[in-house]
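Students often ask why we bother predicting the structure of a whole assembly rather than each chain alone. The short answer is interfaces. A chain on its own may look different once its partners are present, and contacts between molecules only exist in the joint model. In this exercise we take two input lines together and write out one structure for the complete complex. Read the inputs first and try to guess which parts will touch.
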Amino acid sequence: MPDLTAVLEVTSATHPGMVRSHNEDSIVADPELGLAVLADGMGGYNAGEVASGIAVAMVSNEMKKALAGRKAEELNGAVAEKLIAEQSARANAAIYQAAQSQPRYSGMGTTLVVALWHDNHVTVGHIGDSRLYRLRNGVLEQITRDHSLLQEQIDSGMITKEQARHSQNKNLVTRAVGIDPDVDAEVHTYGVEAGDVYLLCSDGLNDMVPDEDIELTLASLQSNLPLAAQQLVQQANDNGGRDNVSVILVRVTKEFPARGGWVDKLKGWMR
Amino acid sequence: MAKLILSLEGSVIREVPLDKERITIGRKPHNDIQIENLAVSGEHACIVTILNDSFLEDLGSTNGTLVNGNAIKKHILQNNDVIEIGKYKLKYVSEAPPGSTSVDEFEKTMVLNRPAVARASAARAPGDTKVMQAAAAPAPVAAAPTPRPGAAPAPTPRPAGAPAAAEAQAMGVIQILSGPSAGKEMELTKNLTTLGKPGVQVAVITRRPQGYFITHVEGANFPLVNGKMLDAQAHRLNDHDVLELTGVKMEFFLKK
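Now the answer. The structure tokens for the assembled complex follow.
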């Protein structure tokens, strides 16, 4: 199993916000596996907590098992994408079943973002409007595209991004985990550079804090990741904290090719 | 349901509920809201409602359409916006009056149910999660009646999430007291301003609704405030505090 503890600096923070009494977000980050998972649950009577908890637990456990037998070289983009797609489907089935079988869980669902680092790449799968951002050379970019009504309106040219900030139709997702018997995660693989900082977050962050301030926070505080995470949550709460807010920050400290340098090659010849 | 209150020179004429996806306003009789006035074009403007959003769009009228005094082409209506067409005023009142929406409902993520999407969807069990029916029969994307959005300057609404307190807050300023940059002043306008030397010693001054705070970021030495070394916690800054970082002294003060 690959071990990325020396490569990835990982920190996370979650807060119920200033309005809600319960936190229905769930997060898991495992620097050794190179895995980060975030889910924002929805549903009455705190069923959201159950849904997001199932999603995060299932994906991280399944991923650990799947990677246990593998060598780093075996994990490429296609393999990682397939793993994430399969695990998302399984989580969806589990949550859907639970929702069908228990009246108090009826209609529960969750968003999901999964990121897996391997061989100087990151494979990202997502369903819903929880996001992955990347800070590279001081510039923040939103990597995942929301599965939301607002994003569709922006994509079709109906409204501008600026108008979207004033919309009352925020938080209407077009895809979620556990709502339909089948759902497809959107999965892509991207190149990773040393110095990159990745942010997984629930909409409790980006609905309360504009992208410019997220960028400023990460760029200014990337040398102290826990402080950066704490400052993001604090700004969300200072601006109203109307929803649960969760962040996972991952900083790539150096390159991590699957096949190492000449030492690995030498070892390979001598086997 | 959102509605418009139509008035002229202070007298309310009638209330119009926004119960259709597209409501037209103009001088000609076929309009939903007919305003018989020469300053109003035959087809002057329309309001398109998609779920909770209502978009006002000027249809190329001769005299234009104003919202809160500003000319618009396309504008997302906010509660209490006042539309002016000719001499007539239409006040937009959004769905639930503020305060009546339970805070729990606000900001909750909900799933949009779209029957047009070909997916094996089982009968939805009744439950607490809100599943929204798309307003238009096909996906909302296809329902856009106008081909192009105009360049709509949103006149007054505050950027989403900005605290009201920030506008009334006094501006913090740092003045360098020693070293080669002595005398230099820096206004603390942003939420975060970092000071010091990366790799040696860095502190951050954060601007919050309750005031300015300084926090150590990196470095073996922590910043000094009025001669005393800070710990890892955020420290509130007071008017005329003297800070010291990487051997440089600076004063924090509030601009009145």
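Check your guess against this: DSSP finds eight helices and twelve strands in chain A.
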